[in-house]
Each structure stands twice: as C-alpha cells, then as structure tokens.
Design a protein that fits this description.
- It is a single chain.
- This protein is α+β, with helices and mostly antiparallel strands and 157 residues long.
- It is 43% helix and 28% strand.
- It is built from 6 helices and 5 strands; from the N terminus they run αααβαββββαα.
- The chain has a 5-stranded antiparallel beta sheet with strand order 1-5-4-3-2.
- Helix 2 packs antiparallel against helix 4 and helix 5 packs across helix 6.
- The radius of gyration is 16 Å and the shape is globular.
C-alpha cells in the first residue's frame, strides 16, 4: 500500500515538473551529455517532501558529468536554454558568468500558490547541475536577508 501511494505521488509530481524535464532535455541536447543516474534520489525526494528541511517541500536534481567540451557552445546558446522558462512564468532572479573559467550560474523563480519555486543551474565546461525546489516564502526571505548566515547554519558552524 505504501509503495502504491509513493508511486502515485511520484507520477503526479513528474507530470507537474514538465518545465524541469524540458530544461534537462534542452541542456542534454546543448552539451551532448545525458544526466547522471543518482542512486536513491527518489528516497531523498520523499524525505524532503515529508520533513520539509529549511522550508523546502519538493526538490528535483539533475547532474551532468563528463560533458563533451567540444560541444559546449557560447553563452548565448546556454542563455536560450534557460530563457525558455519565461514562457512558463519563471523570471530571472540571479545570473552570474565567469569569463575566465567559463562557468555560469542562473537562478529563476516564480510564485507557486503559497510557495516559491526556484530553478538553479550551474554550467561548467565539463559538468552541469540543475535543481528545482519549492520553498516557503519565509525560507526564501531568510536566504535573501542573510545568505552567509544561512550557509553557515547549513554547514553546522
């Protein structure tokens, strides 16, 4: 019974995460690499949904390793991958680019009922990560007001 409920919950969540899956597919095409399978990620997501650490109620993660650096295209092409989110109500929140290291960090946000959704991505020459999470407005405000303090709190300092 528990397994059936978990499977039904995951299927419903998957249908609601079309934007995350679309970004992952676009990034796979752009960088020429498939996302890495992470063992037990489903269990981690279930833990997040049940325990809601630091106001987070849902989380999706895709990691890309061993990217074919010859296929990594210019910054504008990477921007277009994520700019497509605006069609789904996402708005740019943070964009950082390092010309020296060819690293990019983008964060998009949107309201989702009483919560906020964040889509975070880092793209480096040989790896990339995409994270989507739902979190409470209070948790988001804490991170914005005191990012260093929240990071230290998460590290246990």
């Amino acid at each position: 019974m528990v397994l059936c409920l978990c499977a039904a919950g995951m299927a419903g969540a998957h249908a609601a995460d079309r934007d995350f899956e679309a970004i992952v597919r676009r990034l796979e095409q752009q960088v020429g690499a498939k996302r890495t399978h992470i063992p037990m990620m489903g269990m981690a997501n279930l833990f997040v949904k049940m325990s809601r650490p630091e106001g987070i109620s849902d989380m999706k993660l895709a990691v890309f390793e061993d990217i074919d650096t010859s296929r990594l295209v210019d910054d504008e092409a990477i921007d277009r991958v994520f700019d497509a989110l605006s069609n789904e109500g996402w708005r740019p929140f943070v964009r950082v680019r390092s010309n020296k290291d060819r690293e990019r960090v983008v964060i998009y946000s949107r309201a989702a009922g009483k919560q906020w959704e964040l889509m975070l991505a880092t793209v480096e020459p040989n790896e990339a990560t995409v994270i989507k999470m739902k979190l409470s407005p209070q948790a988001l405000l804490q991170w914005i007001d005191d990012p260093d303090g929240m990071a230290k709190k998460k590290q246990g300092n």
